[in-house]
Amino acid sequence: MTGLRFIDEAIDCASQGMLLVDPQADALVQANAAALALLGCHQDEAVPTRFSHFLGEGLSLWVSFSDEVLTQGQAWSDDLVLVDLSRRQHAVEVSASALADGRRILFTIQQRDLLETRRNRSEARRQHRLGHVGWERISQVFERIERQNRMILGAVGEGIYGLDAKGQTTFINPAAERILGWSAADMVGHDAHQLFHHSHSDGTQFPVLQCPIHASFSDGQVHRVDNEVFWHKNGEAIAVEYTSTPIFEMGRLVGAVVLFRDIRERQLAEQRLREALNEVEQLKQRLEVENQYLQEEIKAERNHHEIVGESPAVLHLIRQIELVAPTDANVLISGESGTGKELIARAIHASSRRRDRPLIRVNCAAIPRDLFESEFFGHVKGAFTGAVATRMGRFELADGGTLFLDEVGEIPLELQSKLLRVLQDQQFERVGDNVTRVVDVRVIAATNRDLRAMIGEGGFREDLYFRLNVFPVRSVPLRERIDDIPLLASHFLRRASVAFNKTGVRLPLAQVELLKRYPWPGNIRELENVIERQMIVSQDGRLHFDDLMSAGARLQIPVPTTPGDGDEPVPDETLMLRFKANAVATLKRTAGKISGEGGAAQLLGIKPTTLASRLRKWGIDPRDFKIRR
User: Fold this and answer.
1) Architecture of 2-116 per CATH?
2) pTM, two decimal places
């Protein structure tokens, strides 16, 4: 036991660091005093037991070296690094031997810089013994080392200067002179802090007691800073990052070395990168939203060439489009629902210089009252409850293009003044933002309401009306362009054939004549819907519109009233007698023909099955009218 204790004491007193490590368990089993000092640990303090805690980024090299030791029994290396508790790195030379248990390794460790110093001293002593010639050689060695150090200091791009314990400059390299504008003659022997580190970036005083560089003189720690400024000799602030490393001599703090670099270009590049990324993100959001509108335009497949018709009203409309499209004048399209106001707006946009930019459509009748301003002008994150992200408005999306305000008469009166400002100045602010944005937007508005009457009732601003109504366009109802019905019906038939994949379906001329006799309260939209519906139900390859004509007759024939009775109600029995008499008169006129072209059902505006049912109920046989004729 006495021998073992002697061995332990001898190992603990050894000048070389010795570590007993279990690599598989990543365990630091034992360390002598020299090793603890190297690792920055004190014997009376707890030492981390995980060996990897002291390996830092060199972990992979230590793993490879340990495998070599366990395989070969022993190994040596001078390219390993240990990291002490203050995270300082130490280049070390290591000799290692595997213990008999095949698991643990004894590392004998020496610092390479200490070994180099010892070798130099040994060489110096050896040369001293050799005499005067040897001293000349030593002098040459140190001169060469000094020249090499000067060359290194002059070649590096970072600024380097040294300080003594009083904060006075001891040396400065050329890069520091170039960055700071102060020469070595200006700085050496003077307080560096008072020369170029005396103020913060905002100009406020920077007390020397708060200076991290001077802190190295008191705490002996390395200080790294990446957000301060040094002041150029001409008074310009230089953004820098620096590292202040204390210098020890015989265990005593004697000064510090400061390495710094000018990061202004890097900060500028980072700022440009952030701005570019922000711009890319905004463009990405804008393109995503624009793409939705472009997809809608592609699906619509409409332009002014598809304004179908040859009537004088259509030819006049096309002339108006050709006149106003090349200009940037605002256009107000008025007309009943279903007359194709949006198609006119798209035709104007497609023929304008803005055709390469999107046409942004806003259905003013579908926007909740509280969201009008956000929809038009956008909002910033947190502007109101539910604004979880910044959003661009329709005006911003339409920048460079056209904004189509459908059902413009539905815009709340309190928002009309803001809309007027944008039309006048082409400027706006997002909801919750104070940044004024400038846009280049052409506005095309559409309405089925009488804006003049709304102005008189106080529901629409007169100045906004005149701003929108620079070039008025009237979209005529279908009943005023009856001659275009055959062309429109054929056009919608072709589109429905493609959409429903039903080819060979015909539209007989007799059915076209029926279409021309219908009043079309829903205008072109109703005609398109009717064609599509009949295309779906068609079974014999032809379209029929008997039901449509029955509905049209009900729209046109007024409810009969008793002459002289004013608004007095008519008894149901009296009405039935009149219906019966009217049906008999019609059967006489058609010689008993119920269905088909010119039949009684068509003249009465009801379905043939409905008329036949009533005749059976009344006990009337249509064949009796054929015999009589």
Assistant:
1) 2-Layer Sandwich (3.30)
2) 0.47
